[in-house]
Structure formats: C-alpha cells, structure tokens
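Data deposition worksheet. Section B asks for the primary sequence of the deposited chain exactly as it was used as input, without tags or linkers unless they were present during the calculation. Section C holds the resulting structure in token form. Section D is free text for depositor observations; keep each observation to a single sentence. Incomplete worksheets are returned to the depositor.
Section A, Depositor: J.P.
Section B:
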Amino acid sequence: MTELAPGFLWGASGAPHQIEGNNLNSDFWANEGHIPGMERSGDACDSYHRYREDMQLLAAAGLDAYRFGIEWARIEPVPGMISRAELAHYRSMIEAAFELGLTPVVTLHHFTSPLWFAQEGGWLGDRAVERFRAYAEAVAPILEGVEWIVTMNEPNMLAIMVGMAQAMRNHQPAGEWQSPTVDHEGPRPPLPAPDVKIGERLIEAHHSVREVLREHTTAKVGWTIANRAFVARPGAEEKKRELEYVWEDLYLAGTRGDDFVGVQSYSSQWVGLDGIEPHPRHPDNTLVGTAYRPDALAIAVRHTAEVTGGMPVLVTENGIATRDDTRRIAYTGEALKHLEAAIADGVDVRGYLHWSLLDNYEWGHWEPTFGLIEVDRKTFERRPKPSLAWLGETARRARN
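Section C:
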C-alpha cells in the first residue's frame, strides 16, 4: 500500500443501541413498541455485558482500533440525574480497550437520545443545546486518555430522522416502518433532504460540546458525516452541487475548527437534472437496496478533503450489507484500493474503521448483516467470519 500516516488506525465500529440491548430509556426503544413493521432491538447482541469478548476478537485478529458509543439514555435516564454506575461502565469499556491494545474512538451520540429529551422537543427544543452540553460535561471525566472523540454520528442523517419524527407527531405514519438506512424493497422515492434549520441546530450543539471536550480532554474532536458520493449525469453538475450542500457540505462546513472529520461511505448515487436517482433494481444490489459501489469511498474522502480544505479524515464507517462474506471481502478490498489511490493523491486519511464489527440491529430491522462477526441471537455466541481475519491480515501487511 501507499505509505500511511503514522499511527494509522485499523479497526471496526459499532453503535450502542444497535449492539448493547435493552436501551429502555431511549426514544428509539419507545418507538419500537408501537410503529408497525419496526422490529424490536430487544437484547440486541448483549454487548453491554459482552463488550470485552468483542474487543478481544477484534484485537486477536490484528486490528488496533474500536469505535463504540456512550448511550446518553443510560447516563441520564431522567433530566439532571447522572448515573455513576453507567459512567463507570463506559469507563470500564475504555480501559478494556487500552488493556487490549486498542485505540478507542468514542462517540457521544449515535442517533438515540433519552426519551425525556425527545418529549421536551428533542433537537428542536429550546433547551436542546444546553441539554447536550450538560451531558457532555457529565461524560468528560471518564474520557481521560481517549485520543479520538466523535460528538455526534451522521448529523445529516439525524436531521432526516428528526424531521421524520416531527412529521409523525403531526400525522400517523403511513404503512410499514422503513428505516432511513434500509431500502431493500426498493426502488423507493429518495429520502427527504435534511432540513437546513435542523442541521444548523445540530452544528450549534456540536460546537458547544466540542468546547466542553477541549476544556476537559486532550482528545482530537470531530463528528462523522454520511457521504452519498454523488455523481452527476451530463448537464446535472449544478444540481449535484445544490444537493451536496444540503446533504453534506453544510455539515462539512460545521467541522471548521475540528481536529478531524469522520467519513461514512457505503455506496454512490447518480444525480440527474431532476435530482437524486433511486438505486435501480440490480442483482448486485446489497441487502439494504444500495448499489454495489466500492469506489464510493474514494469519492467520499476526496469530496470531504476538497470541501474542508484538507482536514484530516478518519474513515469511521465503510462496509456492505450481504450474507456472502466472500463478497464482503471483495467489496472491502476494492474500497481500500480506491482509498489508497486517494491517499496517494494527497488526501490526509488517518484510519479505516469497518462497519460493522458485529451483525447488529439495523434501526428497525434485523435482516441486513454488515458484520465481521456473526452473532447467534439466542445464545449470543460470536462466530468470526473470514472477513475479520482477512481485514486483520490486511492491516498487518499495511504496517510492514
């Protein structure tokens, strides 16, 4: 491979609600109980209790970084009541990573919020930024020694989810639940674009929490952005730029003053004169209905570097929903070749974290499998797939 940045991270990612289980005080858990077609997360992968085993498998494969999240709904189940036991739990996770030689990449908010926060207006509430800042102040003491902190996961996707939740409060959802990340019945109409006003509120919250983290930690601070890797049809370049602003560039502008930006990429989409084109039906489409586009990762990091003026990039999610692990290896191998070409051209990439470590709960659905490790949902037995060893060996070769 092209020479990588010193300390280049190789690892995998997960999110608390998707793997921990029984996130009882969260807004998403509450929705799982009454929205038609939404499967329950339940015990999920029971990683709340089995996190050390998960980290051991990651480290044993030869990987050296693990991105995981802290769940706000556990830390602050009611306003102002901070659980010391939960703070200790997440500190234990951080220390387990250190013991196993893993660099923890810690996310403070990964889509889910306390139910009480949602009930008082959520991210559109008058006290939203104040509430998020107070949560960060409570968590900051357990982050000692952590080098990488993500304030918020995919604020551009979160803005869509906030908008959808707002619409649901006014009207009953029509038909069955369809996760914003799953398109397996496709093609469906394109997702609504993120509301710019919601995006601006999330940027305000990000900057406020970044300030807290700068005061209390020595970590690099940033957030992660879902990159659609738009490609323009002939004559649609202006439409592409217009869509890039509302989908990505607003949030990339919000990284000004950050230490890094997380890039999250899975597929690419065409933009025509009329806007985003739905993924066409094709035998190669993934389990979430997206096109098989490993080249999307390089499109994503190049666009991010261009918009941010060369800010350091950490690939915080990249993967494929498939039952065929040989296809996962093929996709990831191709994506890494494209990433290598972008690095050779000068994009400052600091690490690659695969999505995901485990087959997990995909925001209302259990069918899509992204993991390097299969999980038996009854016994919680972990069964590493060949792709885990393959990625570990790829990391070893890259270090040598």
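Section D:
The chain is about 40% helix and 15% strand.
The longest helix spans residues 196-216.
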